[in-house]
């Protein structure tokens, strides 16, 4: 298909004037004050260890205060919040943001635009990831008759072009033998606009990244149609820095990455407190934040630039090229782990080797305590016994392991086994392959378990 206009994600990038000079620290020598500008996405809660949570904890400011005492310089941090990665890239290539966080597909656009404009950027760390791709989900309205991706032919699907969620949509459709350019009508919309379009009926489905699918499902405004983990391809968000800034102030960038590592440790050790903090800062329900960032959440957090994630990034390039969003991208040249290695010190090798544990079922009680279970049936018994005391209950999909709300999951009874699935199509596939298995309502699953 001939494109007569630029894709919106690139159009946004081109509208920002490419001002000369560095970021906020351009005149630091004259004033004795260095301002580091950080772009982040508060509601993209897979980036909180480099954004929302890190900001609320004040760890970066703490690191800079200590450095300022040693250097005799005053360091300040300017936090700038955006809905997607595209405007962060625009500001970085204009020299106005020093450090930014965004998803894997926007990171590639970040690399391409930086090279094109001779304002190169570097991928310096990871925030959160899912090795199967579960951070992106396609959802439909709660009463929709759409049951699988095959039903999207001829339908209007909202997504943010150039985002990781768009990449998931394109790949999923291609695997289902559906042409993402010809067989659907793609609506290029910001997440909030797409959510409203879905609710209004002007979009039949919505493909978005964390935390929008979980939020809409929790609110009863959507149900999952496709679990991104079915692709079995890693998705992640990461931290990118202007190369000029990194070379000029490598110690400051390492301070940021040390602070990110500390925020990651805080999230992993105090997941409930972290979820409550992020919820307060973003207005998202804590239960939704915990779905992604909890002890068994969909996201795994760790700054190390794992080879599996870098390899996945390389596999993303052809998808963006086919959409004419980037040309060739040299991923190996874009990835620069020297700063995170120095920030971590001797612990980096261990961080690289650490693998996420399989998700367990988990209940969050109104008392504030949480408890995990080896099986979904055990969780159901706990929920049935604690009626009125449960704040949220989560179960991993029986096939992909993607965590989902227990009361929003599709339940299958197979003899004495009770199995949860994120989507109806996944449950139907299981039932068709297991004689005697049947889908059951959540209330029946609770009753059978107890």
Automatic annotation (TrEMBL):
Q: Which residues form the signal peptide?
A: 1-28
The answer to whether UniProt assigns keyword Lyase to this entry is no
This protein's source sits in the domain of life called Bacteria
- Record has RNA-binding as a keyword: no
Report keywords, A-Z.
Answer: Signal
Boundaries of each SsuA/THI5-like domain copy? 88-274
**What protein name does the entry list?**
ABC transporter substrate-binding protein
The organism is: Streptomyces maoxianensis
């Amino acid at each position: 298909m001939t494109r007569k206009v630029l894709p919106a994600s690139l159009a946004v990038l081109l509208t920002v004037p490419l001002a000369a000079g560095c970021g906020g620290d351009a005149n630091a020598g004259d004033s004795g004050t260095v301002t580091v500008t950080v772009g982040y996405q508060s509601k993209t809660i897979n980036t909180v260890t480099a954004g929302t949570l890190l900001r609320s904890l004040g760890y970066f400011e703490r690191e800079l205060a200590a450095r300022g005492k040693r250097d005799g310089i005053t360091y300040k941090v300017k936090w700038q919040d955006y809905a997607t990665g595209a405007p962060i890239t625009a500001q970085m290539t204009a020299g106005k943001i020093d450090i930014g966080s965004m998803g894997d597909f926007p990171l590639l656009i970040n690399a391409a635009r930086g090279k094109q404009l001779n304002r190169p950027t570097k991928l310096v760390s990871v925030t959160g990831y899912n090795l199967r791709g579960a951070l992106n989900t396609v959802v439909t309205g709660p009463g929709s008759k759409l049951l699988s991706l095959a039903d999207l032919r001829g339908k209007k699907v909202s997504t943010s072009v150039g985002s990781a969620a768009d990449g998931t949509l394109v790949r999923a459709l291609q695997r289902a033998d559906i042409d993402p350019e010809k067989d659907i009508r793609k609506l290029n919309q910001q997440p909030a606009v797409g959510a409203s379009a879905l609710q209004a009926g002007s979009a039949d489905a919505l493909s978005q990244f964390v935390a929008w699918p979980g939020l809409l499902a929790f609110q009863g405004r959507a149900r999952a149609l496709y679990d991104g983990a079915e692709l079995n391809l890693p998705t992640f968000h990461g931290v990118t820095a202007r190369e000029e800034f990194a070379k000029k102030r490598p110690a400051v960038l390492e301070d940021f990455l040390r602070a990110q590592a500390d925020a990651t440790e805080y999230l992993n050790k105090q997941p409930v407190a972290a979820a409550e903090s992020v919820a307060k800062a973003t207005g998202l329900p804590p239960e939704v934040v915990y779905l992604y960032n909890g002890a068994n959440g969909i996201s795994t957090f760790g700054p190390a630039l794992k080879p599996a994630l870098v390899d996945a990034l390389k596999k993303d390039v052809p998808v963006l090229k086919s959409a004419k969003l980037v040309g060739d991208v040299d991923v190996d040249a874009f990835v620069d782990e020297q700063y995170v290695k120095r920030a971590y010190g001797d612990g980096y090798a261990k961080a690289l080797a650490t693998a996420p544990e399989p998700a367990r079922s988990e209940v969050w009680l109104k008392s504030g305590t949480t408890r995990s279970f080896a099986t979904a049936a055990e969780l159901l018994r706990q929920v049935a016994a604690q009626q009125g005391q449960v704040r949220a209950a989560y179960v991993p999909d029986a096939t992909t392991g993607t965590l989902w709300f227990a009361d929003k999951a599709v339940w299958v009874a197979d003899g004495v086994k009770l199995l949860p699935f994120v989507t109806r199509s996944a449950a139907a596939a299981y039932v068709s392959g297991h004689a005697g298995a049947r889908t059951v309502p959540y209330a029946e699953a609770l009753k059978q378990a107890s």
